[in-house]
């Protein structure tokens, strides 16, 4: 991505940025001449990727962060503000997925997904929003999912967390407007990342599940380009590819047809479900 005056010199913090879409966004912001802070639970990998960006003449630092730890989130944001004086972009990207039927989930698995996907996002907002209110500017970007607009079976905890992130983003957007703060929620379909390729599937396997996915995954660099373009234009909601918008419309406008699609999907999954 070429230098962009909108991002040049701006301070950008991205959670879960050691790999996948978080890494692609970190690289995109850095190439646009932003000063990027890569926060990830895997410090070694984050430092490796930040070092690669610095070797390319770009500005990037890494720090360790478990987004489920609210105190750690607060400390990280305080440190970034102390070091840079402000935070211009904050991307709540860290997320996990565990797939399977709701009957197969225990509460520990529910809590694991919700702690990262929902509370991790909430922790970021809780600590960075006051900073942006004080400076009267900023842009919060929450990475949700197409499953936050149109629910699908086999994704109970993930859907729950992402619907909540979409709703939270919509509430925050209205409250933040008069403080000069923008809020964007990103709702992608399947992206070609390790989150999808190595996902834990209860009573089945990732390989078997992938064979049932009816659409091609979006390349991570393509996804990053779409998201960056939406951020540049301050889009309220970035939903892609086209089938996400179609399914979201069906969910709202034709519930019986949407339910029939979901019913077909769960019955298809049960063909690969193993009780042993």
Q: Regions with pLDDT < 50 over 5+ consecutive residues?
A: none
SS elements, strand count: 9
Strand order of the largest sheet: 3-2-1-4-6-7-9
Q: Roughly how much helix do the residues carry, as a percent range?
A: 40-55%
Q: What structural category arises from helix and sheet content?
A: alpha/beta
CATH hierarchy: architecture: 3-Layer(aba) Sandwich
Distance between the termini: 49 Å
CATH superfamily, please? NAD(P)-binding Rossmann-like Domain
Radius of gyration: 19 Å
Report strand %.
15-25%
Question: Could you explain the architecture of this structure?
Answer:
This protein has 276 residues and is of the alpha/beta class. It has a single domain, classed as 3-Layer(aba) Sandwich (Rossmann fold). 51% of the residues lie in helices and 16% in strands. The protein has ten helices and nine strands. It has helices spanning 20-31, 43-55, 70-84, 107-135, 156-176, 194-197, 206-212, 220-232, 242-253, 255-269, and strands spanning 11-15, 35-40, 59-64, 89-92, 98-99, 138-143, 181-188, 200-201, 237-240. The strands form two sheets. Strands 3-2-1-4-6-7-9 form a seven-stranded parallel sheet, sandwiched between helices. The protein has a two-stranded parallel ribbon with strand order 5-8. Helix 1 packs across helix 8 (220-232) and helix 4 packs parallel to helix 5. It is globular. The mean pLDDT is 96.
